[in-house]
Amino acid sequence: MNFIKPATTFIQPFAVSFNLVEGIMLNPKSHLVRRAGDMKGHYRDHEALAALIAAGNPTHYEVFETPVPHEYGHLMYCISKLHPGLVGEEWFMTKGHYHTAINTGEIYLALRGEGLMMMKTPDGQCRHERFEPGRMVYVPPYWGHRSINTGREPLISFCVYPGDAGHNYGDIEKEGFPRRAFCRNGATVVE
Ligand code: S6P
Ligand code: ZN
């Protein structure tokens, strides 16, 4: 066994505040906004996405962070606010990613809204778990993950993951997820 751990930067303790109703972090250091135009290639209905972009390119989701060193030992955390909506029949969702350090997991605690966490492994296993306020989803190491908003209000979640996890979007873009979530006659259908 190797007991030599990578170096971890020493920093001072700090605290941040959230507005849990709005789903925002107060005074975040980083506020990522992804719009419909950033989602090309992710939805089944390409024409519906193009129409949405032409009709004003609405915000899909926002991620608020106050980063810590991206290193082993530190914990990254964020508030994710996924807006409600449909691209054709498909519910709004995040791009999804594996962690670059694929043996790192993640915890998502849903604070508001309803939805699904869709998860897949590189060898094609696919599972999903339901989000509702107060429900935590554990994304184990090796599972790519994507949030899906299946409701009419923002899906707000708080997530925590290892500082050295990183994001690998490329492999998910190539592979896609085996299952998607649609709205048919007012009901959510996963297929
Ligand atoms: C990071 C964590 C979240 C997502 C965020 C946006 O490991 O899973 O912060 O980055 O929900 O999703 P995506 O797929 O665009 O990064
Ligand atoms: Zn992640």
Radius of gyration over all CA atoms, rounded: 17 Å
Task: Return the average pLDDT rounded to an integer.
Answer: 95
Strand content: 35-45%
* Distinct helical segment count: 2
Summarize the structure.
This protein has one domain (18-190): Jelly Rolls. The protein has two helices and 15 strands. It has helices spanning 46-54, 170-175, and strands spanning 18-19, 24-25, 30-35, 59-65, 75-82, 86-87, 90-91, 106-112, 115-120, 126-131, 136-139, 144-149, 155-162, 181-184, 187-190.
What does this structure look like?
The protein is mainly beta and 191 residues long. The chain has one domain (18-190): Jelly Rolls (Sandwich). It contains two helices and 15 strands. The strands form five sheets. It has a six-stranded antiparallel β-sheet, with no helix packed on it. A hairpin with a 2-residue loop joins strand 14 (181-184) and strand 15 (187-190). The model has no long low-confidence stretch (mean pLDDT 95). It binds D-sorbitol-6-phosphate and zinc ion. D-sorbitol-6-phosphate is lined by residues 63, 78, 80, 94-97, 106, 147, 159, 161, 165, 167.
